[in-house]
Amino acid sequence: MTLKLHNTYSHKIEELVPSNPDGMVRMYCCGPTVYNYAHIGNLRTYIFEDVLRRTILRNGFKLTHVMNVTDVGHLTSDADEGDDKMLLAAEREKKSVLDIARKYEDTFFKHTTALNIIRPDIVCRATDHVQDMIKFVEKLEEKGYAYFSNGNVYFDTAKFPAYGMLSGQNRKDLRHGARVEEDTNKRNPSDFVLWFTSSKFKDQILQWDSKWGRGYPGWHIECSTMSMKYLGEHLDIHCGGVDHIAVHHENEIAQSEAYLGHKWCKMWLHGEFLQMKNDVKMSKSKGNFITLDTLIEKGYSPLHYRYLTLTSHYRSPLIFSYENLDAAATACNNLKAKYAEFKQAGESSVSDDDLKLYQAYLDEFNAHLNMDLHTPQAMALLWKVVKDKNLPASLKVKFMDEADTVFALDLAKIEENKATNAPVIDDAVKALVEERKAARAAKDWKKSDEIRDKLLAQGIVLKDLPNNEVEISIK
Ligand code: AMP
Ligand code: ZN
């Protein structure tokens, strides 16, 4: 099997071949800035990265997956202008910056765990790596890529001719700071801060000594520093959302390759945005966002949201609406109910032809994932398998278990929950459904409603379809 992924840098679909001789895939994903709750758009990006992680492992690679937690240095504009996000949050909530950071980091991992997102092998906080960042900046300065101007240290993008290659922009056209406020200390508009000392944030609580004076790091330097610390000089995959391409990731490439003197990261993968209806941007800094807790309060399971994200390709925008989420919830519940039904059907004899059919389906499933993580096609195939009358139930269960190694929808959970009185679609339930069908055929609506309510009280939901057919799902 070969795993092919879209590389933002080359604009091509490329095969994943680890750079290092040990064959280990080294992957770095930009983590959350912990000044507020992650919204479900942010979480879409982490689900995409989790699907990537699971697919890499499914292909038999060894993997080291690193993610940072930004708890210092990120300003409201990614181009180092505006206000300090952590300070704003501390003022808003009348808490210390560190209390804010830990509160939102804890909630972030609570949410990612609920979404079955596997915790990266290494999670590293920016504030724990400031000395490493200082050394990094010192080396950039020694090599002539950094300059000191009015108290701050900047990266000189004019010294890095490849600046702009990732986003396909000419460096001279880039005027990142222009929309916010021009930083007159910069030599070029696309230059960015490596170390702040003389800033407008006199009250910045988190400060460290450095040869340039007491201060704190710019946002971009943390990712290059921590990535190299834990993954070395040759990175295979770097991920983030599309908003990171033009500034943050350009800056990471410039400072890393200037530091190393050679190419740093092979493949860049970016997840498209989750959008609200009417093209409204979900924004943490503007406060108009939906969190996972909002969905849970409305009665959805986190995995209903995971299902929704799997129905679109990670490189396509996804429009969020409650109608879409309802459809995803129903489909996800039905899938679980099907799993339980097939499991209860027990072992049946399986012929060679059955096994061949199963294998063909599995190959097709892997091919969809291995072609740039095509989860919508893989999901459509899963439903085809579920509905295939020629495949024995035991092989359907096997296929669904395989699919769930990547989809991670806990398809088998209902079965496991048997001991805890979770509803199961057993023969008694099926008999009641048949009895209700007969009542409906006889236009005995009272009896039909009674049976429906009785099942609902057990956590089993019936949805009437045309021709007196019924869809059964678990609440
Ligand atoms: P932040 O905590 O703001 O640094 O963002 C965390 C991750 O979410 C980054 O990879 C962003 O690129 C990504 N992101 C931000 N907004 C969205 C969105 N609306 N949809 C998908 N991903 C997003
Ligand atoms: Zn980053």
Walk me through this protein's architecture.
With 475 residues, the chain is α/β, with parallel strands linked by helices. 43% of the residues lie in helices and 16% in strands. It is built from 15 helices and 17 strands. The strands form 6 sheets. A 5-stranded parallel sheet has the order 7-4-3-12-13, sandwiched between helices. Mean pLDDT is 90; it is low at 176-180 and 415-421. The structure holds adenosine monophosphate and zinc ion (ZN). Adenosine monophosphate is lined by residues 30, 32-33, 41-42, 44-45, 240-241, 243-244, 271, 273-274, 282, 284. Adenosine monophosphate binds at residues 30, 32-33, 41-42, 44-45, 240-241, 243-244, 271, 273-274, 282, 284.
In short:
This protein is of the alpha/beta class and 475 residues long. The chain is 43% helix and 16% strand. A five-stranded parallel sheet has the order 7-4-3-12-13, sandwiched between helices.
Structural class: alpha/beta
**What is the alpha-carbon Rg in Å?**
26 Å
- Ions, cofactors and other bound molecules: adenosine monophosphate, zinc ion
Strand order of the largest sheet: 7-4-3-12-13
Main beta-sheet strand count, sense and barrel state: 5 strands, parallel
Taking all residues together, what is the mean pLDDT?
90
Compute the number of helices.
Answer: 15
Distance between the termini: 38 Å
Percent strand: 15-25%
Helix content: 40-55%
Extended strand count: 17
What general outline do the C-alpha atoms trace? elongated
Which spans have pLDDT < 50 for at least 5 consecutive residues? 176-180, 415-421
